[in-house]
Amino acid sequence: MLSPVTIAKEIDARGSFCPGPLMELIRTVRSAAVGDVIAVLSSDPGSVKDIPAWVAKANHELVALEDVGGDAKRFIVRKTH
Amino acid sequence: MADKFALIVESGTTDKLMAASILTAGAAAMGKDVTVFLTFGGLLAFKKGYEQAPMVMPNEFKGMEDVLAQSMKAKNIPHWMKNFQDAKEVGNVHIYACSATLDMFDLKKDDLEPIVEDVVGVAYFIKEAEGAQTLFI
């Protein structure tokens, strides 16, 4: 069974234009503590590829990617270092 | 994989400034060291007072300025300058003005937005861009 994840901070970047949601996520990850889990909501279709690509490149962890209705997605990211 | 990204921004039309700014932000986000060399129209676009400058479109989009301005507002598309500012905030981004262009238009560094870090010649840019993915826009 998956243990529940506590989200330290959630950013609503819906309506923000490419690459806005990613930039918001990066800022938030920077100011977060190691181990924190951050969620970002995005309606930018580019985010589906962009955010996982950044998470992989920056060596953090994509915990989940959820549909939240409409065209929006919720990206849940753990800061690993 | 190159860890450097370089852009020569020659065009001062809004479409290309937007493209250049988004590429800069994306490259900075992906951890690239980014060097932007502003020349001609690209440099003039960075003059102080850019906020008041009208949207400028190339021939293929002529006459669409108002429609595009409305669409950008409706869709919350930020001014291209905001993308450059965000890029600088999240990454290692250096924006330089071409000294020859400044001279040609009788401008000083003080006439430019402070996001422009320095005035340099082409040789300096070439040195900084060594080994970088480089684009001319």
TrEMBL record, chain A:
Top-rank EC class of the record's enzyme:
transferase
* Source organism (scientific name): Calidithermus roseus
Gene behind this protein: tusA
Recorded E.C. number(s)? 2.8.1.-
GO terms (molecular function) for this protein are: transferase activity
Question: Per the record's keyword annotation, is Protein biosynthesis included, yes or no?
Answer: no
Q: Which UniProt keywords apply?
A: Transferase
Read off the CDD domains from this record: SirA_YedF_YeeD (cd00291)
Outline the extent of the UPF0033 domain: 11-35
Q: Which family does it belong to?
A: Belongs to the sulfur carrier protein TusA family.
Q: Do you know which InterPro entries this protein is assigned to? A: TusA-like (IPR001455), TusA-like_sf (IPR036868)
**Name by which UniProt lists this protein:** Sulfurtransferase TusA
From TrEMBL, chain B:
Q: Coiled-coil region(s) at which residues?
A: none
Q: Cross-referenced PANTHER family, in alphabetical order?
A: CONSERVED WITHIN P. AEROPHILUM, PEROXIREDOXIN FAMILY PROTEIN
Could you tell me what this protein is called?
Answer: DsrE/DsrF/DrsH-like family protein
**Any single Pfam family the record assigns to this protein:** DrsE_2
Q: Which superkingdom does the taxonomy of this entry point to?
A: Bacteria
**What Gene3D superfamilies has UniProt attached to this entry?**
DsrEFH-like
